[in-house]
Design goal:
This protein is an all-alpha fold and 146 residues long. It has one domain. It has 7 helices and no strands. Helix content is 68%, strand content 0%.
């Protein structure tokens, strides 16, 4: 009976993780205009969310491994045409990362148990990118402070 309850709990957790992943996928958005659109909308300059995006390498609101186009552009010091080119590259990269992750999940269904699949999906959950950023920043690989 305990084994059955444990299996049910794991399945529920797996379903929650899967639904959270699809919610996160639906919440993905273009960060390249983040600072400028928020600044003009508020009329008071950039918001704290925009400031965080300007310092982010891996986007805090996207799946693990997806780059923050605006943040990396700011870190590299890109402006104008170079910024537009870089942001287009990061958008293509993020789409490829997302497609590869989704394909991995589909392919893994035939190999992994539902519990293992839930664990795999948790490795790609939204929320891990800030941890990656912190690790990079602690090694001096983030934005250069004046």
């Amino acid at each position: 009976m305990m084994r059955t309850n444990a299996a049910r709990i794991l399945i529920i957790l797996g379903l929650l993780a899967a639904s959270g992943g699809s919610f996160a996928f639906a919440q993905q958005h273009d960060h390249s205009q983040h600072g400028s659109s928020q600044a003009s909308a508020s009329g008071q300059g950039k918001s704290s969310a925009a400031d965080k995006d300007e310092e982010a390498i891996f986007c805090p609101t996207m799946k693990t491994g997806q780059l923050c186009s605006h943040g990396t552009s700011a870190i590299f010091g890109f402006t104008g045409k170079k910024q537009d080119e870089w942001e287009a590259l990061t958008h293509r990269y993020n789409k490829a990362v997302d497609a590869a992750t989704i394909q991995l999940f589909k392919d893994a269904e035939s190999v992994l148990t539902p519990e293992q699949l839930a664990l795999l999906k948790s490795w790609f959950a939204v929320g891990l990118n800030p941890e990656i950023n912190q690790l990079l920043f602690s090694k001096g690989l983030g934005p250069k402070k004046p």
